[in-house]
TrEMBL record, chains A, B:
CDD domains associated with the record: cupin_CDO
Native organism: Polynucleobacter hirudinilacicola
Keywords annotated in UniProt: Dioxygenase, Iron, Metal-binding, Oxidoreductase
GO molecular function: ferrous iron binding; oxidoreductase activity, acting on single donors with incorporation of molecular oxygen, incorporation of two atoms of oxygen
Name of a matching Pfam family: CDO_I
Name of this chain's protein: Cysteine dioxygenase
UniProt record similarity statement: Belongs to the cysteine dioxygenase family.
Residue sites binding Fe cation per the record: 90, 92, 143
Ligase is among the record's keywords: no
């Protein structure tokens, strides 16, 4: 799909599209529906993801920041699952979109009863390459997610309505439903350079 | 100066300040004057610059992208001079600010006569740590710059009113004034992650 001179173009176009979207829209339902369309286009190909954002860790799932909006209106993350890796039960406290890029994810949603107890919300689901799901306080925010492939890396691209690595959110004790604050951070001190368009521009010089 | 948990904070604050500025202002004179104030604050300390954006090349001056606005309204670059390195005579075709972070730069401005010939505009200047100068089509856009220190690396932080690495601009033949198109690109495929505030947030968890 990608221009050989400009492999990262699909990610750059996505970031530009999302930046225009959050500049024009503030209603969450619109951000989710229009963001989903943009994400659907992004995950149609996967050769745009830089190598360093695809590397699994032997023990922990990795969260490579791909882009954060400077005004904190959205962020984009490459979520890399090693074989058998699984999150705790957790929430996000903001809207989020999950688009499957490579492999498969297994997910189970939960609801918290007024008593504080967690109960499953629907049955376990499988997210396949090219598919998208949404989470958030108004549409169901608590879930547990794992790599659905036991012997391979899976990668999903996540978009959130804030700088997700800095959001105070919660993990939940599966037995008691007791929440515990956490903040995820990011797995790398560097992000991809989306903006070097010089090869393309150079090819057009007279 | 910087918080030990969040070394990169001054650069993040600068990027947020510039993003707010370009969201509110379009007049170039204001962008230059307010951008200069923000840049002055940024270059008061230098411990925020990530190591990989300080590395000189034995032969060529390096241009490490620190941040590009997704809508192309500004970009920030770490310009790293090895000993003795020097640009060709060149222009920018947009406004730019140069803030001296480490070491010193020597600059000579030029004007192009209607005949096409280049003549010096003022005498050679020295830019010292903490000082700022501006370039641009309306305020003098043609110059040659070099490391003013013969045996050390110098580093200046540049801010431009576009994605500078992708701008079609010109070098000039010093004898004839003949312009030649070029595009500079960037020296790294990665940029710093300015957005991992998790250490700070984690320290505040209850
Ligand atoms: Fe999640
Ligand atoms: Fe210059
Ligand atoms: Mg100092």
């Amino acid at each position: 799909m990608s221009n050989q001179l400009d492999t990262i173009a699909p990610l750059r176009e996505f970031v530009i599209g999302m930046t225009n979207l959050v500049s024009q829209e503030t209603e969450q339902a619109h951000l989710i529906s229009k963001g989903s369309e943009l994400l659907k286009t992004l995950i149609q190909s996967d050769d745009w993801l830089p190598e360093f954002c695809t590397v699994p860790h032997p023990e922990f799932y990795q969260q490579y920041l791909l882009h954060a909006d400077p005004l904190g209106r959205f962020s984009v993350v490459s979520f890399v699952w090693g074989p058998g890796q699984k999150t705790p039960i957790h929430d996000h406290c903001i809207w989020g979109l999950i688009g499957m890029l490579r492999g498969m994810e297994k997910g189970q949603r939960y609801q918290q009863l007024p008593s504080g107890e967690l109960v499953t919300d629907g049955s376990e689901t499988i997210l396949r390459q090219g598919e998208i799901e949404a989470v958030g306080p108004t549409i169901g925010d608590i879930h547990v997610v794992s790599n659905a492939i036991s012997d391979k890396t899976s990668i999903s691209i996540h978009v959130y309505g804030a700088n997700i690595g800095a959001v105070k959110r919660h993990t939940y004790d599966p037995l008691t439903g007791q929440p515990k604050q956490f903040v995820s951070g990011y797995s790398s001190k560097q992000v991809p350079n989306l903006w070097d368009r010089s090869a393309e521009v150079r090819a057009s010089l007279t």
